[in-house]
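Protein data:
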Amino acid sequence: MAWPVSARWDAHRRAGGRITVRADVWHEGTFTGRSLSVVGGSIRVSESSQVRRAGTVVCSDADLMPTDAAGVLSPTQADLHVWVGHTYLQGDTEAVPVGVLRVEKPRRASLFGPLELEVHDYAGVLSQSRFPAPWVVAAGVPVRDEIARIVQSVLPWVEVIDLIGSPLTTGADVRDGVVWDTVWDLATAMGGEAVFDPSGRLLLRPVPDGSSASVWTCDTDTPTANVLDAGVALDLRGVYNAVRVRCSDPTYAGLGVAVYQSEGPLRWRPGFHRLRGFASPILRTLDALTAAGRTVLARSQAYAVEVSPTTLPDPRLDAGDTVTLAIRGVPTGPRILAGFEVPLDPNSQRMPVTLRSPLSGVAVSTDLQEE
């Protein structure tokens, strides 16, 4: 969801004002008192990646050397709270969070050069974490509570917010392996996704489908247009148009549904079958199976037309936001913000953006047949 800002924000941005960047260093949920002098880099935000935010932060702090595994920038504990915004003519600053990012690799290519920090959000931390012992899941626990228990076993200070509202409960189970894989599977079973937002909270939310109100206009031919350039392509890589979902609990053997696109050029039809599968032991009703199938199908990179504009930077946006497209020569209408790159160079005036089209009609069947 786009971060709320004042009425001055957009006018200053469109006038080409310099951006302001702040990066505070935190350890285990506590501010260390150290802020970095950011001079460059960028944060990539991608809807198609489970690690939603990653990038590089370039700093001019000459006193910091990445040689101490227990130091202020130690990859075992250092998180950057990064804010980007504007300093107005009146002297005050307005900024929005663009990520709580774990330092993955601090480096100096030269003793006389800048400090470069490779960073990613907490999904990257959980992707590198494994259960130290078999994780026992009790039956009858709300899935949202189980997700919170798993996440906070690794990152105790992280807040988990449920925006799905699913009544789904767990079955007795034992989990092992990668922590994030379990979190992602449980969120999918709830009928949504697990995403770390710009302020570091884990949101359990429905997969964006373009039905929410537009928060931004991507245009070329108005007095306040903000598109500098745009590329257009047809792209079917990563596209699938059907999902077969089943319950993997042997007690419910044979319980399953197929969710598929029934309308539009990417519909399920002879000659164009692209099928995905998903299974979970907690999908014990047709409603739960259908919700999970819709969630997986919505993740398909179903680009009827892929549009990649370059715009003036607007760091308040988030992947999944609904935006309005009004670019000459391209079909107009709502699009979903699939990805963008927030510049951290104070002088940058360019932000690459990728938009995707919402899925068209969706149908459910217990026996997927030719259309």
